[in-house]
Specification:
- By secondary structure, this protein is α+β, with helices and mostly antiparallel strands.
- The chain has 16 helices and 28 strands.
- Among the domains are: 1-94, Immunoglobulin-like (Sandwich), CATH 2.60.40; 562-601, no CATH class.
- The strands form 9 sheets. The protein has a 7-stranded mixed barrel. Strands 2-9-8-5-6 form a 5-stranded mixed β-sheet. A 4-stranded antiparallel β-sheet has the order 22-21-23-24.
- A hairpin with a 2-residue loop joins strand 19 (304-311) and strand 20.
- The protein is globular, with a radius of gyration of 26 Å.
Length: 601
């Protein structure tokens, strides 16, 4: 196995340059940069102190997957920062047991007298079997690895103590909201086997998500990682996403476990039978497709990449690592300071106050059908709503048939100080998608964004703008044309083509263990089959079907794509979009926008 060097942040405890992945036992050397300090270490994830740790005196024999945490302590009990490294032996990962030493065999309560069984094991019929065994090493090294390390009790203790209770046990979704917001000190490591790029930082760790936090829904939960000075250096500074438009400093990161359209979705013949098809059609890349499509349309969205997650050295599955939408994210990408921003999550305020959002929403709901409607013009003149962004946002969610939206899973943001073009909507948690090529979400009104579009569509100026965006993105070389939509999907599927085997080995048999199916979900029998169905049937047909739905709703008129007329230019020969802004005639190589007319290129 090829192992690349691991770089770690300078700490008072220094690890030697042993790589993350190992085939054979080795001796690990620790040292202190501070004279007079002794090094103490643990090998089980516990954050070390003089009482629970071993004093370092000679190199440590490492022969199995091990999270090593170390700290410097002097005679006066002055303590340095915790330094952590996780060393992974894939042969151990393949045989990960059902009952790891020191971990409980029960997790959250079902009711007063029973608990949900813990789940840790890897399925050796996959990891060691003749079909996938030869692929396992490449599968586990094909995407980056993220390691979380913290006290076992911080994750799995049944204690009700807000300071020590287990965040994986008390998920915060029960009636008492127990555990909601509990954050624990931890370490996060990142290692990319392909490039050798890596970091380790101390951080705060808490559970993230809504329904996916309910233990009856899924045993695999999402995490939020926070970087603050109370844990270490503050911001994480690292070129994590490697995109030209991505920032390289972060206050928060999200590790999305996935819930809908995964192999863990709850449902049986007797309860929620409609959910069985979600497991059969699981792809794990639907949310990523929506985000990347929205970005390709020219909009702000979170950056993301897939990673294998380990918790205290235990493999936990395939995760989507992404940015968190909040005021910090907004200021990083749009300028100003965090305090400038209002950030809305399904009507609730994440940051800021709701005055500007309420003004925007109430103005939209008053928009009339006149060419000179004052409320429509107010949206533009007072920079209340980025109308082009809103059109694109609606098109993405309609195209994918997002069925867990917009009664849920929508977010928007705007700066009060420098509002730009107004509130921008961002794709979020769009994983209930691509259900049926004929599915029509366009006329469904069940939340604020669809309520807004129902009113806006009465206005001829908005209809012309929406026509423009439809032509841009669904014709020519647009993002949601059949060829480009499929190409984007195929590129995302290629990212996890092998990595999905790890997810199958970790969680593919879970619903069999609960009696909800007799199947173990696998790459070849399920994931590849559904991937090909989408590429063969959904993407080739979806664009024309979707255009028909938009036409029926009165937002698209095929006859409205006309020839560019010279008399629609101004005296200087410039063309303008429907908001009166000058337009580069070669924009995206898709359309020329001019007044009310558009030319397909």
């Amino acid at each position: 196995m090829s192992c690349l060097a691991f770089w770690t942040q300078a700490q008072e405890v220094i690890f030697d340059d042993s790589p993350t992945f190992h085939d054979e036992a080795f001796r690990l050397t620790l040292s202190s940069t501070s004279p007079g300090f002794d090094v103490y270490y643990t090998l089980n994830g516990s954050r070390p102190n003089r009482g629970n740790a071993v004093r370092y005196s000679e190199p440590i024999e490492i022969s199995t997957t091990t999270p090593v945490s170390a700290v410097c302590i002097d005679a006066n009990d002055s303590v340095g920062p915790v330094a952590t490294r996780t060393f992974i032996f894939l042969r151990d990962v393949y045989r990960q047991p059902a009952s790891p030493e020191g971990y409980p065999n029960i997790w959250s309560k079902k009711d007063a007298n029973s608990y949900w069984a813990a789940d840790y094991a890897m399925d050796t019929t996959i990891t060691l079997g003749e079909t996938y065994g030869p692929l396992m090493e490449n599968a586990m090294l094909s995407i980056p690895t993220v390691c979380l390390v913290t006290n076992i009790g911080y994750l799995f203790s049944q204690s009700d103590d807000p300071e020590t209770g287990g965040i994986y046990i008390h998920t915060g979704k029960d009636l008492s909201k127990k555990g909601d917001g509990w954050e624990r000190p931890a370490s996060i490591e990142y290692y990319d086997p392909k490039t050798g790029k890596a970091f380790q930082r101390n951080c705060g760790l808490l559970l993230h998500g809504g329904n996916s936090r309910n233990p009856q829904n899924t045993p695999k939960h999402s995490f939020r990682v926070s970087f603050r000075k109370e844990y270490g250096a503050g911001k994480l500074r690292f070129d994590l996403f490697e995109d030209d438009d991505a920032v390289t400093h972060f206050d928060h990161l999200i590790l999305r476990a996935g819930y809908n359209y995964t192999w863990l979705k709850n449902g049986s013949a007797n309860m929620y039978p409609q959910n069985i098809i979600q497991r059969t059609n699981a792809q794990y890349i639907l949310d990523a497709w929506a985000k990347e499509a929205h970005r390709a349309m020219g909009n702000l969205t979170t950056h993301r990449r897939f990673a294998h997650l380990y918790i205290n050295g235990l493999y936990w599955g395939l995760y989507e690592l992404c940015e968190k939408i909040n005021d910090n994210f907004a200021s990083d990408y749009l300028g100003g300071v965090d305090e400038d921003y209002d950030v809305v999550d399904v009507g609730d305020m994440i940051d800021g106050n709701r005055a500007a959002y309420d003004e925007m929403y109430n103005t939209v709901m008053k928009v009339g059908s006149g060419e000179q409607d004052s409320h429509y013009q107010k949206l533009i003149d007072q920079s209340l709503l980025d109308l082009a962004n809103f059109c694109d946002y609606m098109l993405v969610n309609w195209y994918i048939g997002n069925d867990d939206w917009d009664h849920n899973n929508w977010r928007c943001l705007r700066s009060r100080v420098d509002p730009g073009t107004g509130f921008r909507y961002l794709v979020w948690d769009a994983e209930t998608a691509f259900k049926d090529v004929n599915y029509n979400k366009v006329e469904v009104v069940n939340g604020p964004p669809t309520q807004m579009i129902k009113v806006l569509k009465k206005n001829p100026n908005f209809r012309r703008l929406m026509q423009e965006r439809i032509v841009m993105h669904l014709t020519g070389e647009g993002v949601m044309t059949a060829e480009r939509a499929a190409a984007l999907y195929d590129s995302l599927a290629a990212e996890i083509d092998l990595a999905i085997i790890g997810e199958s080995a970790r969680w593919g048999d879970y619903r069999k263990s609960t009696g909800e199916t007799v199947e173990t979900y696998t790459r070849n029998d399920h994931w590849l089959v559904r991937r090909q169905q989408l590429l063969d049937d959904y993407f080739p047909r979806r664009t024309e079907i979707f255009l028909g739905q938009l036409e029926a709703y009165g937002l698209y008129d095929p006859s409205g794509i006309g020839e560019l007329r010279i008399d629609e230019r101004d005296d200087d020969g410039r063309t303008f979009d429907l908001l009166g802004m000058p337009v580069d005639e070669s924009y995206r190589g898709v359309v020329i926008r001019c007044g009310r007319m558009m030319l397909r290129r």
